Structure of Major facilitator superfamily (MFS) profile domain-containing protein:
Amino acid sequence: MLSYWIDLGFSFLDPSDVSWRFPIAFQILLAVFIVCCELHRQLTSSNNHTNNFPVIPGLPESPRWLILKGREARALEVMAALSDLPEDDPAVLDEFKAVKDTVFEMAQGSFSDSFRTNRNRNLHRTILAYVNQMFQQISGINIITYYAATIFHNNIGMSAFMSRLLAALNGTEYFIASWVAIFTIEKFGRRKLMLFGAAGQALSMAVLAGTTSVPGNAPLGIIAAVFLFVFNSFFAVGWLGMTWLYPAEITPLDIRAPANAISTTANWIFNFMVVMVTPVAFNAIQWKTYLVFAAINAFMVPCVYFFFPETAYRSLEEMDEIFHQAKGLRGALTVVKIAREQPHRYGKNGELLIAWEDTEDARDVERRRSSIVPHGAAGATEKFDGSTFENGGEKREHM
């Protein structure tokens, strides 16, 4: 949003080089600010395990990472804070036990593990994460974010100033629309927002194709301008933040980092592709370029519906249970049905519905553990009745 308004303001300095040099250089200031804040955090938080980062005050580490590092007391404290419950609450202790029982078994993942066809269906889940990122970019969003002013000027026939002003307003509306997802992502779930966004984007692109197919028609030009805003709104609600949330929720803990790194490459590869192809496409097929993206967005709707399981109100351990039940190639289709029918362990307000010990995965973990570690072996037992647990040199008493 800020970049559009800076571009508009400095356009008045044209033909001076400052009109384009400063908007490019200004981006460096934000990167320098982030680096300085991170250095400050590293210097001030190493001893007391708290985050004194001035921009994100009090942001804790992941409970799973803390358990892997042997800081179980801190992990329990974070889980309790996130749930807004006491540390000895049964729901918090149950979640702690569920995470601890699985986190060590899944802590040694590598990039190659992302492509394994194992019980966790690593390859399947990596593909879902990758395609999710790809869909975001091939939707055509960067036609608008990169070329909004050009579209307003060349395709719709507006003046240079009005084109830049509308591009800035378009970016502002895009920012405002993005806030809608914050209040709807949990209420409606991931799948519904993705379906809503893709369907709306397909409709918007189809309207843009129709309204720009008749050059010099002022009323159609106004409709086209409006639907550039409409497309942004659908994208902001359905897909803008989704591709940074869904891949992290769909991948198992052991490959979470490498799988998300792989999926992020799709974001930038297809970003680059769309940005480079768009000018060529407009020169070659003109308004029909919008039809191509309308078809792509329409294709995304059945893909999401049939292949992408819902992750809302699911823990990472629950997603593992769901994928464990998907078998063979048919599992790519059945996983959505499995997720829909699988009972939730936690309610919409975070209340415990099904204890970890009552799940099949918990019984599997116990069977594997009993076959490896003799009962009563030193250091192999924990107590979760609200009194004591210890690991990695940490010990905490619950009152």
